[in-house]
Every structure is written in structure tokens, then in C-alpha cells.
Amino acid sequence: MTIAAPGPTSSATVTDKGAGPLLRAWRERRRISQLELALRAESSARHISFVETGRSRPSEKLLLRLAEHLDVPVRERNTLLMAAGYAPRFAETPLDDPALDALRDGMQRLIQGYEPYPALVVDAGYTVVAANRGIAMLLEGVSAELMTPAPNAMRLTLHPLGLAPRIRNLREWRGHLLAQMEREIALYRSGRLRALYEEVSAYPVPGEGGGEEPAEPVPYFALPMRIEHGGRLLSFVSSISTFNTPMDVTVAELAIETFLPADPATAAYLHALAG
Asked: Do 162 and 254 fall within a single domain?
């Protein structure tokens, strides 16, 4: 697959009560006291209290510093700024914009260089914006309706017409993915992500195809996805990478997921296919 532009991710709406209520919500979500936040941001608990109650309007610099210490996502930092009456600081450049040519080329080279192992790039809503031939191999036999117009990694994995029937430890892997989405919903407060979660969590769980797990499972260093392909049982552990200190909303919401063979047999099989 080649890189495609992701759709917009829904965000919290700007209120007419200033940035205070939004800031308080983020602080409470992070379970940080006003005093602790003040110490981190080199302010005072009194001033933080005044900001949260609307008695004081924070400077743009202070608001960004508070957002950084609360680990507020880049998209929501713009929301905070606009609620306080400031212009958004972070652009949201379409992924197909020429300004991101170097980024797109770099990601494509990165996932191609990972072959024959699977790797893909997704946006904040799990839309697949790029994938290598290792992913294409795993998706062989997946229903065409899941591949268009924009494939979604969660649907491809958990839908009964997707990979789900071939994943031998589906209940474990499904639980891992749903827990991951729950954490991201709490972080990003995304309506788009919440709708996706409700959809995929409602999919029926098919029988875990291809037989039972062995009586004495092979020990792994991380939870693997155990999936059938071509009559073989392959095992992968996944790793997710994001960009450090992104200055653009689009870039901040991209994630590169790579699948590492969890045993020598899987690695040998993939290299044999590539050869």
C-alpha cells in the first residue's frame, strides 16, 4: 500500500468559558494536584486555581507550558489555546501536502526496509496510510469490502471477514487491542475513536480457527499475535513508534507499527517467502 491522506480526528469543542475548565479536566485526568502542576510549570497553586476558575487569563506561554506538563495531545493544545483566545499554534498539514514529502518518503522507506516482516503506518483513527509487503501477505484472503475505500487496522484485525478467524489466540489479542483503544480514548477524547471502539468491540468473536493452542504454549517475551498463513502458524510481537516532539497535528497522530517474528520458525518462513 502507498501512503494516503488520513481523515480528520474529532476533538473537544472550544467552550465559551475560557481555557480553565479544559485545563482542570486535563489535570484531573492526569491525577495531578494544582500544587504539583504549579511546581512543574514554575507557577503557583494560587495562579493555577485562578486560571481554572476563570479569574485569571493565562499567557500563551504559560498555557503551552501547562499543556506540556500535562502531556496534552497536540490537537488538544490548539483547543486550549483557542479557548483562551489565542490562535492555534500547531498546523494540521494534510499528509499528501508537498510539505510532508520528506516525511512520507522516509516512512515508506522505513517500512519497506523492514521487509519481509510486516509493518504499517496508521493515523489516530487506525486508518492505514501505508503498509509494506509483509502486511499484504498477512491480508491475503481478507474480504475486499474491508480494504476499501480506506482500510482500518482494527477492522482488518477483528472483523469476522478479516484476520480474526485465522488468529489462534484471538481472545487474548482482541483484549489487548481493545484495552489499547480504551487508553487512547481516555487520552485523546476522540469521538471518532470512540465510535470505532464501539463498532469493533461488538463484532462477534468467531471460533479461534485452525485448532486449539498447544497444551504447553511456547514461552514468549511479549504477548504474541498467533496467526495462520498458508497452513503455517506464525507468531508476531508488535512495537509502536511515534514522532518525538511533533509540531504538526497530522504528524503527532501518526504511528508506525512493526511486527517482529516471535520465534525462529516464523522468521525463517517469512524469509523463505521473500526469497
From this structure: yes
Return d(Cα 51, Cα 49) in angstroms, integer.
Answer: 5
Contact 137, 261 (CB under 8 A): no
Q: Which run of H or E residues covers position 66?
A: helix 60-69
Distance CA 263, CA 221 (A): 10
**Residue 117: strand, helix, or coil:** coil
Instruction: Give all strands of the β-sheet with 255-261 in edge-to-edge order.
Output: 128-131, 119-122, 255-261, 232-241, 225-229
Task: Determine the pLDDT at residue 262.
Answer: 95
Number of domains in the chain: 2
Q: Is residue 75 part of a domain?
A: yes
Closest CA to 80 of 272, 33, 237, 89: 89
Size (the chain), residues: 275
- Rounded CA-CA distance 165/37 in Å is 47
Q: Are residues 123 and 75 in the same domain?
A: no
For residues 95 and 250, the answer to whether their CB atoms sit within 8 Å is yes
Structural domain for 78, as ranges: 20-83
pLDDT at 255: 97
Give the separation between CA 19 and CA 77, rounded to whole angstroms: 10
Tell me which amino acid residue 119 is.
A
At 187 the pLDDT is 80
**Cell numbers representing residue 199 in the block:** 463498532
Distance CA 153, CA 181 (A): 12
pTM, entire model: 0.85
The SS3 of residue 90 is: coil
Q: How far is CA 235 from the centre of its chain?
A: 22
Q: What is the CATH number of the domain that holds 168?
A: 3.30.450.180
pLDDT value of residue 211: 42
Where the chain has pLDDT below 70, the residues are 1-17, 207-220
